[in-house]
Amino acid sequence: MNRRNRCRSSVRSCVNSGFTLVELLIVLVILSVLAALAYPGYGDYVTRTRRMEGQVALMNAMQQQEHHRALHHTYVAFSSAAPSAGLPWWSGNSAAGSAYELEAQACPGGDLRDCVLISARPGTANVDARFADPECGTLTLASTGEQGASGSAGNSAGNRAQRCWP
């Protein structure tokens, strides 16, 4: 039995064997709506993940600072312009792929022997400049344990630190 004879005997199966243009357009509209709803959540997830990268880098740098202080009785200042041996000034595996640029300096009004403040600035020219975190901005960690953020998350510095530091 050839195809022509099968189609004559079963016209319904020959006619409904494909998709119409209207059906394809409906599927495309549904997929577009789902993508439009999912993309903002995905962007927020990426930002929170990169923020966690900065927090981990700050804690690792502080741990290295405490080790240096135990051996030399002082903290060490560093930045991308004046790097220090063993203390990376970026947050990720490489400078180009990192979200944050790290910098360590003496606490305001203090001496480097007693207190160090490490800051992580997002998306500078020395790291991934496409990354921005307006909610938390620059993350900071002091050797006194004080955590901070300079972004727009909340009205007070304490509220920002609570939202930006879990």
Automatic annotation (TrEMBL):
UniProt biased composition (Low complexity): 149-159
Annotated spans, Disordered: 142-166
SUPFAM superfamilies per the UniProt record, alphabetical: Pili subunits
Keywords, comma-separated and alphabetical: Membrane, Transmembrane, Transmembrane helix
Statement: the UniProt record of this protein carries the keyword Membrane: yes
A Pfam family that the UniProt record links to this protein: ComP_DUS
Lineage per the UniProt record: Bacteria, Pseudomonadati, Pseudomonadota, Betaproteobacteria, Burkholderiales
Residue ranges the record marks as coiled coil: none
Organism per entry: Massilia niabensis
NCBIfam families in the record: IV_pilin_GFxxxE (TIGR02532)
Transmembrane segments: 21-42
Stated name of the protein: Type IV pilin protein
Keyword Cell inner membrane: no
